[in-house]
């Protein structure tokens, strides 16, 4: 029986890895997700077989049913505009579950002193359990704040306690680690009071709140990725404590992939992960454009003028942002692109690594509208093309097209790599209003010569442009 369980786990791990490989591109992402889901189902069955006390099966199956009932409806009904919030929430639930497992094991084993019925647990088991409790609690409460910021229930700007922010975080971390050390020492001396595990969970939970609250909206994609990595690592640590191979492998896969993604996104913003965690960027005060000495004016345009510009262009680059997601304009953009391509215009899509509210947000939206993956160009691959592009159509992308990041040393985003939209011969920006982006920073591109603004709902505006193209 043990050999069967081992084989099933190996098959499940292989499917996890193969499914993850499929997530590298929109064309294979759905299939990869399904493969990984089947792998998880096999791992669950293997775990049930491994548990010889069938009386526990009822509780496990009941938990699965509750999870399906609570998880499937929002996953099916949530629109792509709210998908980042859902990802943050689901990720937080995973971290919270790991923290609860650690707490449960502490209570079940009298402070780890009789772990799994064996006196004197090994140091890796104790350390794994306490690590899972700390990181899982941080991940849950931090993800909850990320969810509320993305949902705009909390403001996207940094929320801090001023100069006391970092000392407060340090004190909370020290408190959580100190309580964990006390538990670890007491585990070999007959157990410790339940008070200490509560100190670990509460201090780590408050730390999760105080770490994410000061982080502004522009950094939320990186925060989601970082918290996802933490949840994976905490699950792996819990797997070590529970001697559950499936949790160890799955947790390490999530933790490793999340860490790599977080690092890549931080590099894309030209910021270090410690600087992001320190907070203070994204959602701060409005930064004026460099050289702004008086009132600035914008040039408004119409759907007809935009259609004429693009119809007679050699190349058009579409820059999608969160405004495209809000308006659900991806299908309208695809229809417009088909008309332009029929007229001999080359259409490409420029994707900034942190556009939208989560990693890969824009890629998923465009893939949903059957936009060719080959037409989606990453920032490093497309930036040199803007200088020879006739028209760039910016749809709700604010911060990732802001030339202040390149030209204004006083800007909060100075040094962040951006899409070189301002180098295009003509720029058309689709926006509802002149409000700043999620980072709360003014964009001088909107006032530049060669830029015109097409105000209104993005989907409606693109549809109007499409109708005008049909008439040409």
Number of domains: 3
Low-confidence sequence ranges: 282-293
- Reading the helices and strands in chain order gives HHHHEEHHHHHHHEHHEHEHEHEEH
Structural category: alpha/beta
Please estimate the helix content.
55-70%
Give the amount of beta strand, in percent. Answer: 5-15%
H/I helix tally:
17
The geometry reads as globular
Count every beta strand, where a strand is a DSSP E run of 2 or more residues: 8
Strands ordered across the widest β-sheet: 5-4-3-6-7-8
Largest sheet data: 6 strands, parallel
**Mean pLDDT figure:** 84
Using only CA atoms, what is the Rg? 25 Å
User: Separation of termini?
Assistant: 72 Å
Catalytic activity: NAD(+) + NADPH + H(+)(in) = NADH + NADP(+) + H(+)(out)
GO molecular function: NADP binding; proton-translocating NAD(P)+ transhydrogenase activity
EC number: 7.1.1.1
Membrane topology: Multi-pass membrane protein
What does this structure look like?
This protein folds into 3 domains: 1-77; 80-278, no CATH class; 303-471, 3-Layer(aba) Sandwich (Rossmann fold), CATH 3.40.50.1220. Strand 1 (114-115) and strand 2 form a beta hairpin. The strands form 2 sheets. Strands 5-4-3-6-7-8 form a 6-stranded parallel β-sheet. Strands 1-2 form a two-stranded antiparallel ribbon. It is globular and about 80 Å long. It has helices spanning 2-22, 26-50, 55-77, 83-108, 123-150, 165-187, 194-212, 220-242, 245-268, 273-278, 303-311, 322-327, 330-342, 361-368, 379-382, 404-407, 458-471; strands at 114-115, 118-119, 315-320, 346-351, 376-378, 391-395, 426-431, 451-455. The protein is α/β, with parallel strands linked by helices and 472 residues long.
């Amino acid at each position: 029986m043990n050999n069967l369980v081992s084989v099933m786990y190996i098959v499940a791990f292989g499917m996890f890895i193969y499914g993850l490989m499929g997530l590298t591109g929109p064309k294979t992402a759905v299939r990869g997700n399904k493969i990984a889901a089947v792998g998880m189902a096999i791992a669950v069955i293997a775990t049930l077989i491994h548990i010889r006390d069938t009386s526990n099966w009822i509780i496990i199956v009941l938990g699965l049913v509750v999870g399906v009932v609570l998880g499937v409806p929002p996953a099916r009904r949530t629109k792509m505009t709210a998908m980042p919030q859902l990802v943050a929430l689901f990720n937080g639930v995973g971290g919270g579950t790991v923290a609860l497992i650690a707490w449960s094991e502490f209570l079940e084993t009298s402070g780890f002193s009789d772990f799994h019925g064996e006196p004197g647990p090994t140091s890796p088991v104790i350390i794994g359990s306490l690590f899972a409790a700390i990181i899982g609690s941080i991940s849950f409460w931090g993800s909850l704040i990320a969810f509320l910021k993305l949902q705009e229930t909390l403001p996207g700007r940094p929320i801090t306690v001023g100069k006391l922010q970092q000392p407060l975080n340090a004190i909370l971390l020290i408190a959580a680690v100190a309580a964990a050390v006390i538990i670890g020492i007491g585990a070999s001396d007959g157990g410790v009071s339940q008070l200490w595990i509560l100190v670990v969970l509460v201090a780590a939970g408050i730390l999760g709140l105080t770490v994410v609250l000061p982080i502004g909206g522009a950094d939320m994609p990186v925060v989601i990725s970082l918290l996802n990595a933490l949840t994976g690592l905490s699950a792996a640590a819990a797997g070590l404590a529970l001697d559950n191979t499936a949790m160890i492998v799955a947790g390490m896969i999530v933790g490793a992939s999340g860490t790599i993604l977080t690092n890549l996104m931080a590099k894309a913003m030209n910021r270090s992960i410690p600087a992001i965690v320190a907070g203070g960027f994204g959602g701060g005060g409005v930064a004026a454009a460099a050289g702004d000495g008086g009132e600035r004016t914008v040039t408004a345009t119409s759907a007809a003028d935009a259609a004429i510009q693009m119809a007679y262009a050699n190349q058009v680059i579409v820059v999608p942002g969160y405004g495209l997601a809000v308006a659900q304009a991806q299908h309208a953009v695809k229809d417009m692109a088909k008309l332009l391509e029929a007229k001999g215009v080359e259409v490409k899509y420029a994707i900034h690594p942190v556009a939208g509210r989560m990693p890969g947000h824009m890629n998923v939206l465009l893939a949903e509208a059957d936009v060719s993956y080959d037409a989606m160009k990453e920032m490093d691959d497309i930036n040199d093309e803007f200088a020879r592009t006739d028209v760039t159509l910016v749809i709700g992308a604010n911060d990732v097209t802001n030339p202040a990041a390149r030209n204004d040393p006083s800007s909060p985003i100075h040094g962040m790599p951006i899409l070189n939209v301002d180098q295009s011969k003509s720029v058309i920006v689709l926006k509802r209003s002149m409000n700043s982006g999620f980072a709360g920073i003014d964009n001088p591109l909107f006032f530049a010569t060669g830029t015109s603004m097409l105000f209104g709902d993005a989907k409606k505006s693109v549809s109007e442009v499409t109708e005008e193209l049909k008439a040409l």
